[in-house]
Amino acid sequence: MTDNHAGGGPVDAVEPGYLARRRARRDLTGRHVLITGASSGIGRSAAFAVAERGAVLFLLARRGDELAAVVDEIRAAGGEAHGYQCDVTDSESVEHTVKTILDEHGHVDMLVNNAGRSIRRAVHRSTDRLHDFERTMAVNYFGAVRMTLALLPQMRERKFGHIVNISSAGVQVATPRFAAYLASKAALDKFAEVTAAEMLADNVTFTTIHMPLVRTPMIAPSGKQGPSESPEWAAATVVRALTERPKRIDVPIGTLAEYGTLFTPRLKDRILHRYYRALPDSAAAKGEAPQDESPDSEALVPQREPRRNSTAAGRVTRTALRRAARLVPGTYW
């Protein structure tokens, strides 16, 4: 006789169906996944990781030669990838690329908005540099929104779609010197939150990943700013976002910062101000180096920078932040 579970039905009649649905949900085999900013950094690593799960990849980047190399490497390893040179800040480029992909492959199941640009500069050094804010918004916000809007109609028509936005734990922390970058990511976070609520009946879902600092070319001009994760770690997180489709994936430091904002906002400001005073501006931010200090996620791999002399205040601050972060788990739902 078959045992009954709490719901009243046979265990072996229910579990296989549930497990099959759960496995099917997590399986990326044959899924059409589009990743922007795929020629280096997080995008490149994510492309390899997603290809290993059997997905059909559509990879976008501005630099065609580097993109072609990634596509060739994935194909050589037995994966299926297609490269499309595209500038997400250009509406005509995005429209042409999306139309080409849909004409050639029929549909896109999942989108990873990864292409990004970062600028590390204190606001008082940016009063004559409005373009810092404009160009981060152009890539990080409008570029991602442009891709989402282009793919949304066919996702709604098929009643399936999942969009992963690469945001930053800095949005939760409000990290000093990143006003331009974090404002653009915060705008994208809210866009996704509103759109997800509207798309619920259409089965189009969103995951926002609040990434910690990742060792990619994009952070090179800022030097070493604290603990960081590898691109491979970030790629595994992207795979988790695609397979399990949670609402958000956060890390401990971001969760801790949000608690601080809610319960001790003034203390949080004091801690961040001490962090701001302890770590100096980069040479580029002070105008002592070439001004193209904010490469996007497709930039070339940087050379290792010499270690900066650490101050006592800096060491104390970084140690305190690391210890505090370990007390709080990241949130994942």
- The portion of residues assigned to helices is 40-55%
Q: Please tell me how large the radius of gyration is.
A: 21 Å
Number of strands: 7
Major beta sheet summary: 7 strands, parallel
Strand content: 5-15%
Q: What do we call the CATH homologous superfamily?
A: NAD(P)-binding Rossmann-like Domain
Please give the alpha-carbon distance between the first and last residues: 38 Å
Structure keywords:
11 helices; NAD(P)-bd_dom_sf; globular; 333 residues; Short-subunit dehydrogenase; oxidoreductase; KR_dom; alpha/beta
What does this entry look like structurally?
Pfam families: adh_short (PF00106). GO terms for molecular function: oxidoreductase activity. Keywords: Oxidoreductase. Belongs to the short-chain dehydrogenases/reductases (SDR) family. InterPro entries: KR_dom, NAD(P)-bd_dom_sf, SDR_fam. It is a single chain. The protein is α/β, with parallel strands linked by helices. It has a single domain, classed as Rossmann fold, CATH 3.40.50.720. The chain contains eleven helices and seven strands. It has a seven-stranded parallel sheet, sandwiched between helices. β4, α5 and β5 form a beta-alpha-beta unit. α4 packs parallel to α5. The protein is globular and about 55 Å long.
